[in-house]
Every structure is written in structure tokens, then in C-alpha cells.
């Protein structure tokens, strides 16, 4: 049986469900490599991820950042804040360090590069056991980045920065924020870039998590 997202029943290397009790129940976003050791419970769009996890209570979330990098990282940050007990494994076809670090800083516990379900299975197993896990070559990058000390307190924001930040946390695009605040998309992007520099975070996903953790949105 196939749903609108292409989820099929049976074993195999694609997104599928497995008919045995030992399988790990997961929620999947996009089309990451899905090993046969997992059972797909739902395939929500990024904005619906937190609600899907609350409904299905999976052991883990697999999220494909190639399906939408910014939306995916924002979804990771939101889920990491609302359901911190649910581990998240992100994936992408290539090992772009900025994307990997955005995902980890947003709350991902593991990161897989490539489309090999077997490699993903090893990462899934490690994360289920409570250990962070990454494709070869990424662990050192992540460890170096997260070793940097975090800021003790959030810097003050202007009213306009607060408005933009609140709408970024809600998941709106720059164009949508521009329409809501009657600004140009370029002005919105300038505000976002200033917020990134002000908080010392690398991308929108990390910005969302920072805002939530510091009570700014």
C-alpha cells in the first residue's frame, strides 16, 4: 500500500514499514535513507513534525534536509524544544558542514550523509542506545563546533527585530514575513542576518532554538 508520500509496506531500502515487533517506530520527513530495522509511523511535512511526534510517540525522527534545508532545521529546533526525549537523525546527500552544524545545534543527535540505508541503520542503532552518531568525518567537525562556549544571556532586541524573530520561529519565509510586516523581503533578510550575528548562531534553525530556549519567542 502506498500513501501520498510514497510510503510502502514491506521490507527494503526505501521508506517502508516492517512487520516485526523489534522494529523501531520512527516519524520520517522527506526521503532520508530508511533501514529495514525501522517502522514508519508517519511522514509529515516539516511544519507538522512536532504535532505528528506528539500523536505517534515514535522512538526517533529521521529528517531529510535535502527536502528543504531551512524548514527542516526549524522543524528540528522546534521538536528538540517540545519533545527533547525524542532523538532526531538528520541526513543529506552531501556533507555541507554548515548544514550539519545547523542541524546539530538545532537539536539533531545524529547525522547521515548519502543514501545508504545500511549506514543509516548503524547511526539509528547508536542513537537509540543514547549515543550521538555521525557519518565518517563529521564527528570531529561537530565536536569542535559545540565546544565553543554559549553566550550567558540574550542581547536586547529592537521591536522590529522581535517581530521578525517571532515570525521566523513560526516558520514563515522571508517573503511571508515581508507581507505580514509590510517590508521588503531584502529588509527581512537583513534583519535575519543581524539576528544571526547578534546571537552568534549559524542559521535559521539554530536561531529558532536560541529564541525558544531564551524565551524570546
UniProtKB/TrEMBL annotation:
InterPro entries listed in its UniProt record: CheY-like_superfamily, Sig_transdc_resp-reg_C-effctor, Tscrpt_reg_LuxR_C, WH-like_DNA-bd_sf
Domain HTH luxR-type: 150-215
Record key words, sorted: DNA-binding, Transcription, Transcription regulation
Transmembrane segments: none
GO molecular-function terms, A-Z: DNA binding
Superkingdom of the organism of origin: Bacteria
Entry's Gene Ontology BP terms: regulation of DNA-templated transcription
One Pfam family matching this protein: GerE
Keyword Ubl conjugation assigned: no
Keyword Transcription in annotation: yes
Name of protein: DNA-binding NarL/FixJ family response regulator
Lineage of producing organism: Bacteria, Bacillati, Actinomycetota, Actinomycetes, Pseudonocardiales
